[in-house]
């Protein structure tokens, strides 16, 4: 019979086995930093990812989750929301445009339960940009809010058109009670989740100050009278540390567990929620940045120039990636846009066609509706992406 102590030991070892595939990221980062050939470029990339992306994303997410807590305490707009089909579509577009996938998931589940119509589903899936919105707002606020506004308009128009074509119950499955299986979260995962919150609680303020000063081209090393590259190394170490914590919070068992954000407790503190979302976004950003930088470094090929050669196909590429469920691939596209490898037309077509994590419950509970709604969201994505390309990029 296995004792509790031996069980704990065997479990701890299993957490560090190949079954826990997220660990491959921090292990790879340590290997790249350890290798002399890749050390400099990896440290620089990780530092840039932490100070210029992760910190701003965390700061934005903390504000967002605090505001969500405040807004969630009032339900005065519920009556207006349910007043008409058009109102439902407009409000669904606004919910979809909110950064993250929460609004889109709410509308999708309301459609399945019969509270809103199919046009609202198309509107919210068209308007949503998922977690990639946090990244875009943090890095380029004007562009981020502009894309959100565009999503609201395109989503509302698409939803109204779909309402004219279909009844509210179009492709809605018979309602059935869905019981979520209770799942015991292993102790190590709970500790890692809590440590993520503690990490960003203590790091956020000083990191934000350093990030802002860096944005104004202030030499932090010189300002603090520390040796050259000290801040770069600190950023790289903090990035690897946050990825180590992130790697221990969730098992990767299928596609959904790879590309969708971690589940969060509703009652969690806003900083805890922000920490979990930040590390998920950061993981995909780091992967995108390293692929871009290491490919350019070893091959000598300028990926920006390569992608320019596919100019006319770029909006279609962005659209196609947007059709993939989950936020991970979309964060990858936004990261490539921010690094200059993808044009705005590809970013726009991806932002409109992508449905984030909201597509997972839709596929599980109403697969036909999910597929048709995704197809409908691809149409305005094609129009907007190529419209921008022909007007501004040719």
TrEMBL record:
Matching NCBIfam families: arsenic_eff (NF037962)
Matching InterPro entries: ArsP_2 (IPR021552)
The keyword Zinc is annotated on this UniProt entry: no
Any one Pfam family match given in the protein's UniProt record, by short name: ArsP_2
UniProt name for this protein: Manganese transporter
Residue intervals passing through the bilayer: 49-68, 89-112, 118-138, 145-165, 199-218, 230-248, 281-301, 313-338, 358-391
Keywords from the named record: Membrane, Transmembrane, Transmembrane helix
Keyword Membrane belongs to the record: yes
Species in which this protein is naturally found: Aliivibrio sifiae
């Amino acid at each position: 019979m296995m004792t509790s102590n031996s069980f704990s030991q065997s479990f701890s070892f299993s957490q560090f086995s190949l079954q826990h595939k997220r660990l491959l990221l921090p292990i790879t980062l340590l290997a790249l930093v350890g290798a002399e050939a890749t050390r400099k470029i990896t440290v620089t990339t990780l530092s840039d990812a932490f100070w210029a992306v992760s910190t701003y994303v965390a700061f934005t997410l903390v504000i967002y989750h605090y505001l969500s807590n405040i807004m969630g305490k009032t339900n005065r707009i519920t009556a207006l929301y349910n007043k008409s089909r058009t109102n439902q579509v407009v409000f669904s577009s606004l919910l979809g445009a909110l950064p993250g996938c929460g609004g889109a998931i709410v509308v999708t589940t309301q459609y399945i339960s019969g509270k809103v119509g199919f046009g609202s589903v198309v509107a919210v899936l068209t308007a949503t940009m998922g977690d990639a919105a946090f990244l875009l707002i943090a890095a380029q606020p004007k562009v981020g809010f502009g894309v959100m506004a565009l999503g609201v308009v395109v989503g509302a128009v698409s939803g109204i058109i779909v309402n004219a074509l279909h009844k509210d119950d179009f492709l809605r499955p018979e309602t059935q009670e869905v019981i979520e299986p209770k799942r015991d979260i292993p102790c190590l995962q709970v500790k890692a989740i809590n440590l993520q919150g503690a990490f960003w609680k203590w790091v956020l303020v000083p990191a934000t100050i350093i990030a802002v000063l860096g944005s104004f081209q202030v030499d932090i090393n010189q300002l603090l009278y520390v040796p050259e590259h000290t801040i770069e190394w600190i950023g790289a170490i903090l990035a690897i540390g946050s990825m180590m914590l992130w790697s221990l919070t969730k098992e990767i068992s299928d596609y959904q567990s790879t590309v969708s954000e971690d589940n969060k407790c509703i009652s969690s503190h806003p900083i805890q929620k922000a920490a979990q979302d930040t590390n998920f976004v950061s993981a995909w950003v780091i992967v995108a940045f390293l692929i871009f930088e290491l490919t350019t470094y070893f091959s000598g090929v300028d990926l920006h120039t390569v992608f320019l050669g596919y100019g006319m196909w770029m909006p279609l590429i962005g659209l196609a990636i947007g059709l993939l469920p989950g936020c991970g691939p979309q964060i990858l596209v936004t990261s490539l846009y921010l690094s200059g490898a993808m044009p705005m037309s590809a970013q726009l077509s991806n932002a409109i066609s992508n449905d984030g994590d909201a597509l997972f419950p839709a596929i599980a509970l109403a697969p036909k509706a999910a597929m048709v709604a995704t197809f409908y969201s691809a149409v305005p994505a094609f129009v907007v992406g190529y419209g921008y390309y022909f007007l501004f990029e040719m």
